[in-house]
């Protein structure tokens, strides 16, 4: 299962708070239509079949077809000039 670092949890909570989405909302990580890249979007709620990952008040939704690819990954975040940037790395 995808895990979230404390930095990722903080960044996701900040993004969802600023977007003023419902408490059931979070961010969704899914493959793009081309199937070659991942994209992160703000979502009011999970879609049917999404895996819901909750950690430290942050919620991440991952579709079933993407969750297998991310099962041994850790989502991290860092602040840059353009705001929060996210990266994935293999779990230790």
Helix content: 10-25%
Strand content: 35-45%
The name of the CATH architecture is Sandwich
Radius of gyration: 12 Å
Looking at CATH, which topology would you report?
Hypothetical Protein Aq_1857, Chain: A
Question: What distance separates the N and C termini?
Answer: 13 Å
Give the overall silhouette.
globular
The CATH superfamily appears as HesB-like domain
The total number of structural domains is 1
Write down the secondary-structure element order.
EHEEEEHEE
User: Quaternary arrangement of the chains shown?
Assistant: single chain
Largest sheet: 4 strands, mixed
Secondary structural class? alpha/beta
- CATH class, named Mainly Beta
Strand order of the largest sheet: 3-2-5-4
Task: Give the rounded overall mean pLDDT.
Answer: 92
Low-confidence stretches: none
Number of separate strands: 7
Question: Count of DSSP helices?
Answer: 2
Structure summarized in a few sentences:
With 92 residues, the chain is an alpha/beta fold.
Q: How would you characterize the overall build of this protein?
A:
It is a single chain. The chain has 92 residues and is α/β, with parallel strands linked by helices. The protein has a single domain (3-74), classed as HesB-like domain (Hypothetical Protein Aq_1857, Chain: A), CATH 2.60.300.12. Helices cover 23% and strands 43% of the residues. It has two helices and seven strands, in the order E-H-E-E-E-E-H-E-E. Strands 3-2-5-4 form a four-stranded mixed beta sheet. Strands 1-6-7 form a three-stranded mixed beta sheet. It is globular. The two termini are 13 Å apart.
